[in-house]
Amino acid sequence: MGAIPGPVVADILRAGRRMDSFGWVPATAGNISIRFGEGAGRVAITRSGVHKGFLSDDSVIEVDFEGKPAVAGTRPSAETLLHCQILRVFPDVGAVVHGHSVAGTVLSMVERENAIAFEGYELFKAFAGQTTHEARLVLPLFPNDQDMARLASQVAPHLEGMTLGYYIRGHGIYIWGRDMDTALSRLEALEVLLECELPRRQIR
């Protein structure tokens, strides 16, 4: 199987520091994964229970596309199945990030519909296929569930139609891209939309 290449580990550590700098991965929250290797047939993901702002090389482990650790005794994040699901469904996706921002968590808990809708934002152009602010984009919301297999089954029918990723209510965001830079850019854009939308709703 071989070790996880240094550049892959470095990308995950860099993403953890970036997300931590914005307060999107408090305590041991969040997780980060990358598809790598010959034929892009391997997955590197953050180990369970580590702070993403203080990741080290041994904080990153390998799993297969079903979430099973490559090395017995290593423990991946509890949400590994959700990362692997995205990577299986989208062969061109190279990185998945999951964070827990304050604005997103609050909005996901108070929104009565099954999605948070955004309209008129210039930042829409950060997302694939979007060329104008004159659009309405939605972020699907799913009920939180500690059973990851059951949660994955709820998400599965909707994945291919998602533009912004999705949010687990009271929990956090899942967003992805062809590589880590793209995933982080989309995450940052979406977090700004959430930060704008929260006070915007409060003053309506």
Structural class of the secondary elements? Answer: alpha+beta
Strand content: 15-25%
How many individual β-strands?
8
Mean model confidence by pLDDT:
93
- Strand order across the biggest sheet? 3-2-1-4-8-7-6-5
Can you tell me the residue ranges where pLDDT is under 50 for at least 5 consecutive residues? none
Main beta sheet: 8 strands, mixed
- Assembly category: single chain
Assign the CATH class. Alpha Beta
In total, how many domains does the architecture comprise?
Answer: 1
Shape: globular
Strand/helix succession: HEEEHEHEEHEEH
The CATH architecture term is 3-Layer(aba) Sandwich
Span between termini: 56 Å
CATH homologous superfamily assignment: Class II aldolase/adducin N-terminal domain
- State the CATH topology: L-fuculose-1-phosphate Aldolase
